[in-house]
Automatic annotation (TrEMBL):
Domain Release factor glutamine methyltransferase N-terminal: 5-69
UniProt-annotated binding residues for substrate: 178-181
EC number: 2.1.1.297
Record keywords: Methyltransferase, S-adenosyl-L-methionine, Transferase
Source organism of this protein record: Usitatibacter rugosus
Single Gene Ontology MF annotation: nucleic acid binding
NCBIfam families: hemK_fam, RF_mod_PrmC
Residues that, per the record, bind S-adenosyl-L-methionine: 112-116, 135, 163, 178
Pfam families cross-referenced by the UniProt entry: MTS, PrmC_N
InterPro entries: DNA_methylase_N6_adenine_CS, HemK-like, N5-glutamine_MTase, PrmC_N, RF_methyltr_PrmC, SAM-dependent_MTases_sf, Small_mtfrase_dom
Name recorded for this polypeptide: Release factor glutamine methyltransferase
Amino acid sequence: MRTIHASLQEAEDSIGKVDARVLVCEVLGVDRAFLATNPFHILTETQDARIDMLVAQRLMGHPVAYLVGRREFYGRDFAVDGHVLIPRPDTETLVEAALKRMAGACSVLDLGTGSGAIAVTLACERPEARVTAVEKDSQTLQVARSNGETLAPGRIEWLEGSWFAPVAGRRFDVIVSNPPYVAAKDPHLGQGDLRFEPEGALTDGSEDGLGSVRAIVVAARDYLVPGGWLLLEHGYDQAEAVAKLLEEAGFESRESIRDLAGIPRVAVGRLPA
Ligand code: GLN
């Protein structure tokens, strides 16, 4: 029989302190303070075996968020599984930028919602806003819907389809998206945690990674009101290219916003009023 202390020690040696603590807490259903104050607590055989299994999976590269089934984003816990991209802190920059441009009963469209992290956060932070979220993969949409039911019940219109297809003929005050933008041959795709995330959420197969961004920018004008805003997350080296696309598509004012690491991460365009 192992104690918390022994189990933690072994897990830490193979996957590091932070991940080891998260996984042991998850299996025991306790918080980190419990681990520190009860080092000689004896684990059941089931708990012991479950910890070993999770540590082995983590060692193979499975992201912690998938192993525990959730990830915190903008102060809320989102359920995640292998059908959705794990919400990133970078995307909180996109959310902040959108919130600044949302007032009163405005309408917002989130394209390729994934886990629903963006749409749900906007709905929670702006109770008067009307939020619509589109996702082309039905299993992904199920995860998003379920996050919506938990965190913002009845607040979001969930639509299945590709980009603007399900909102034909409609116009919004704000359109946001964190589309796939990793270049098809980017070596990171085959490394680390990314190997376990849905490939289609990371790359659309285009050589420069901008295939989806281009499609969204070109069409967005027809789905925005005059003076409407388009906000897009993009890769670390794509700010200039996206700004150019926005300019070509008639977005008269443009802005580039940096993430917490100081990297240009979000492009904002506004249509003439
Ligand atoms: N920021 C993600 C990554 O680099 C990519 C997300 C995306 O393509 N939208 O892992």
